[in-house]
């Protein structure tokens, strides 16, 4: 060692060159330790009496569910009642609309028949080419038959027969 100018018994410090950069790997390990997943599975733990926490929590949830059972049943009954009322209201409105439509159609048909009968009687009265009896008119039986057409009560030649027929219909 003498050739290097170092005496015997002296301390030599050697600095060796390391390849690989400035380091920082330790900082990465410390950072990863902080971001590690913390345990959240406390349900598997046991309490002081030796029971699992998961079982205790399940019992609590079951008790709450049972307490709310009555309320849920009342809610269900209320919903069914509301649905039933809505259904009945819808049916009632539909029946009213159908009844109104039927009444409108009936009135329209009656007017049409009345106009047709009136025009037919007027045309028959103007120039009758039929061979008839000596009376020149229709028999009372034919008048009664014509008056029995539904909705045509006010169409007649004699007002006396109308009142008689109306009284007969009321008696029946």
UniProtKB/TrEMBL annotation:
GO annotation, cellular component aspect:
cytoplasm; nucleus
What's the main place this protein lives?
cytoplasm
Q: Which residues form the SDE2-like domain?
A: 20-96
Q: TM segments?
A: none
Q: Does the UniProt entry include the keyword Protease?
A: no
The family database entries (InterPro entries) matched by this protein are listed as:
RNA_Proc_DNA_Dmg_Regulator, SDE2-like_dom
| Chain positions covered by the region annotation Disordered | 122-172
Residue runs in coiled coils: 60-103
An example Pfam family from this entry, by short name, is SDE2
Subcellular compartments: Cytoplasm; Nucleus
Q: Where is the composition biased (Acidic residues)?
A: 154-172
UniProtKB keywords:
Cell cycle, Coiled coil, Cytoplasm, mRNA processing, mRNA splicing, Nucleus
Q: Name one GO biological process term.
A: mRNA processing
- Family recorded in the similarity comment: Belongs to the SDE2 family.
Protein's recorded name: SDE2-like domain-containing protein
To which species is this protein native?
A: Tetraselmis chuii
């Amino acid at each position: 060692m003498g050739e290097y100018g170092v005496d015997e018994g002296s301390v030599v410090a050697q600095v060796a060159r390391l390849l690989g950069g400035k380091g920082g790997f330790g900082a990465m390990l410390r950072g990863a330790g902080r971001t590690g997943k913390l345990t959240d599975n406390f349900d598997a733990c046991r309490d002081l009496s030796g029971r699992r926490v998961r079982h205790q929590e399940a019992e609590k949830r079951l008790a709450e569910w049972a307490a709310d059972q009555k309320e849920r049943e009342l809610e269900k009954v209320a919903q069914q009642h509301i649905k039933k009322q809505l259904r009945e209201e819808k049916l009632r409105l539909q029946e009213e609309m159908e009844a109104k439509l039927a009444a409108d159609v009936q009135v329209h048909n009656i007017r049409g028949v009345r106009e047709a009968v009136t025009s037919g009687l007027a045309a028959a009265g103007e120039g009758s080419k039929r061979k008839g009896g000596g009376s020149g008119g229709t028999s009372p039986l034919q008048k009664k038959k014509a008056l029995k057409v539904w909705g045509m009560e006010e169409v007649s030649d004699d007002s006396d027969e109308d009142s008689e027929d109306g009284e007969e219909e009321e008696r029946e």
